[in-house]
């Protein structure tokens, strides 16, 4: 059976559940029939403004009917969506426009400031629309989407080590198996009410939109203020399926916005994007006592998620892992994976590499493919030289280990550093710090100061004298792994995707270095 495209997933639901509620915004709710009408009308407007030849359409819109109907309209036209974040610097969005030129730029009022300060003069056809204009548009009779399984559905941009964003094109055939699996795993269907915590530039948002719309459920879109009080959002909006990064829980706990026992409607809770600690999972279970908790993992290049682990219902049966995090579980059975050491040989502890139907075909700029894929060569896996082939493995850059039969995420390969001649994993230090009774969360950074690479520990929780933390670590780790500098923060800063912002932490820590004495090893 041929893979279904995103517009086919949506169209099938429109046929089977036309009067079910597809989308709830702050000021209106739309059935599948109404959302389909809005998308078709917007598609016709895009085509009238630009013409029939469309390759990519950028969305500079956020949590609006323009954004959601626009996403569907682009799919209806057989083009690829290029989401832009209204909160990112204009310079970054302009770099994306230069790297992956788009034919049309569709914006809602939240994107207006960016259009007025440098993004509006791209060669693209620019359409500024309000939700009312989209909702009130005259119906349009359009043929089915011309998109096929091999066409690009969307292009997302991840941070590049050079400072230049890397474009990741995902084809419809990459998304199809992911949608089918997750709709079944989380029992999504009509009557389910799905959360929406991710910006469209972060690929878990594709789960929000198309796992929901592929199954006939309702996407319940909160505004930004609602996400500051996630339990209120869960309770008042009757959310049945929650999907977020773990930092939403840790920050909510720090802000005192996680009252326990109230979110009884939540049946499934899914976490992605960062390590989910057992401590965070336990805190969430207190918030939503009847929920099933899944930890999933996957880079954008492997289409949202490629592993999954479900915590047992009884916390007494939760696994004890070496770093106190919930396992990421096995890789999907229809994908192939290998864990390799630094020499490229299979190992129980090393870099996770994956191939199969969800693996993308390569970056927008082929130069970015260099070093990111492996190919079997005898008993080793070696970096691919030349064009990427379907049988090549994508290198995730994440270190994993099999513990008790499950994969455990140990951290990024690039978080392994050498300080004073000793090679160490920053994640191991963070794990030891999180076990201190006064610490809620910890991030350890390696920062170069006057040609000297130093460890800086940033932590939340009860302000604790650094000398006490030094003694705590010295009784658990070698002396060379004890940070020299300490910085307490009320809460961890978050990036636009809701994950802990290590760059912002680094800036805070460097500022603190000018004021605080050196303590530790």
Percent of sequence in beta strands: 25-35%
Q: Measured on Cα atoms, how large is the radius of gyration?
A: 23 Å
Uncertain runs: 517-521
Compute the average pLDDT.
Answer: 92
Could you say which structural class the secondary elements and strand pairing correspond to? alpha/beta
Number of strands: 25
What is the CATH architecture term of the domain at 1-170?
Answer: 3-Layer(aba) Sandwich
Main pleated sheet: 6 strands, antiparallel
Helix content: 25-40%
* Overall form: globular
CATH topology of the domain at 1-170: Rossmann fold
Please describe what this structure looks like.
The chain is α/β, with parallel strands linked by helices and 521 residues long. Among the domains are: 1-170, 3-Layer(aba) Sandwich (Rossmann fold); 336-412, Luciferase, Domain 3 (Luciferase, domain 3); 420-513, GMP Synthetase, Chain A, domain 3 (2-Layer Sandwich), CATH 3.30.300.30. It has 15 helices and 25 strands. The chain has helices at 6-16, 32-50, 65-76, 90-99, 112-119, 131-135, 172-185, 204-215, 224-227, 230-236, 247-255, 278-287, 426-434, 466-474, 502-513; strands at 21-24, 29-31, 56-60, 80-83, 104-107, 125-128, 152-158, 166-171, 193-194, 218-220, 241-244, 268-271, 292-297, 307-310, 336-340, 349-355, 373-377, 380-383, 393-403, 406-412, 416-419, 422-425, 439-449, 452-461, 485-488. The strands form seven sheets. Strands 15, 16, 17, 18, 19 and 20 form a six-stranded antiparallel sheet that branches. Strands 2-1-10-9 form a four-stranded mixed sheet. A hairpin with a 4-residue loop joins strand 1 and strand 2. Helix 4 (90-99) packs across helix 5. The termini are far apart.
């Amino acid at each position: 059976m041929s893979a279904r495209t995103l517009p086919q997933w949506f169209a099938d639901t429109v046929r089977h559940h036309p009067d079910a509620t597809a989308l709830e915004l702050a000021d209106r709710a739309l059935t599948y029939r109404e959302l389909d009408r809005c998308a078709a009308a917007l598609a016709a407007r895009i085509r009238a403004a630009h013409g029939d030849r469309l390759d990519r359409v950028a969305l500079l819109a956020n949590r609006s009917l323009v954004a959601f109907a626009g996403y569907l309209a682009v799919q209806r036209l057989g083009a690829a969506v290029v989401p832009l974040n209204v909160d990112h610097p204009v310079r970054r969005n302009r770099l994306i426009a230069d790297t992956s030129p788009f034919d049309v730029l569709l914006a809602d009022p939240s994107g207006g400031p960016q259009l007025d300060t440098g993004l509006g003069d791209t060669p693209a056809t620019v359409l500024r629309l309000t939700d009312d204009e989209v909702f009130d548009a005259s119906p349009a009779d359009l043929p089915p989407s011309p998109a096929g399984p091999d066409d690009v559905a969307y292009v997302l941009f991840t941070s590049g080590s050079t400072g230049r964003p890397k474009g990741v094109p995902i084809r419809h055939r990459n998304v199809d198996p992911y949608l089918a699996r997750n709709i079944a795993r989380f029992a999504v269907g009509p009557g389910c009410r799905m959360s929406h915590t991710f910006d469209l530039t972060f690929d878990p948002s594709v789960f929000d939109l198309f796992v929901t719309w592929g199954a006939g459920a309702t996407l319940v879109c909160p505004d930004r203020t609602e996400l500051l009080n996630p339990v209120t959002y869960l309770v008042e909006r009757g959310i049945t399926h929650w999907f977020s990064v773990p930092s939403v829980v840790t920050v909510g706990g720090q802000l005192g916005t996680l009252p326990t026992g109230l979110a009884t409607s939540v049946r499934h809770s899914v976490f992605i994007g960062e390590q989910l600690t057992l401590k965070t999972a336990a805190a969430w279970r207190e918030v939503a006592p009847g929920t099933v908790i899944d930890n999933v993992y996957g880079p954008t290049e492997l289409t949202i998620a490629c592993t999954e682990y479900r915590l047992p219902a009884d916390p007494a049966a939760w696994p004890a892992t070496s770093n106190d995090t919930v396992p990421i579980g096995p890789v999907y059975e229809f994908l192939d994976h290998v864990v390799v050491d630094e020499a490229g040989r299979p190992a129980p502890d090393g870099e996770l590499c994956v191939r199969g139907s969800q693996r993308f075909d390569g970056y927008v700029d082929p130069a970015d493919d260099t070093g990111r894929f492996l190919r079997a060569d005898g008993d080793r896996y070696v970096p691919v030289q030349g064009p990427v082939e379907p049988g090549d493995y994508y290198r995730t850059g994440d270190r994993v280990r099999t513990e008790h039969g499950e994969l455990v995420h140990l951290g990024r390969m690039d978080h392994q550093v050498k300080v004073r001649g000793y090679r160490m994993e920053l994640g191991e230090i963070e794990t030891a710090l999180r076990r201190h009774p006064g610490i809620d969360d910890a991030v350890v950074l390696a920062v170069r100061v006057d040609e000297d690479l130093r460890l800086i520990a940033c932590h939340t929780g009860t302000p604790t004298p650094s000398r006490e933390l030094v003694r705590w670590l010295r009784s658990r780790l070698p002396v060379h792994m004890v940070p020299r500098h300490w910085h307490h923060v009320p809460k961890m800063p978050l990036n636009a995707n809701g994950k802990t912002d290590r760059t912002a932490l680094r800036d805070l820590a460097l500022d603190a270095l000018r004021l605080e004495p050196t303590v530790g090893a």
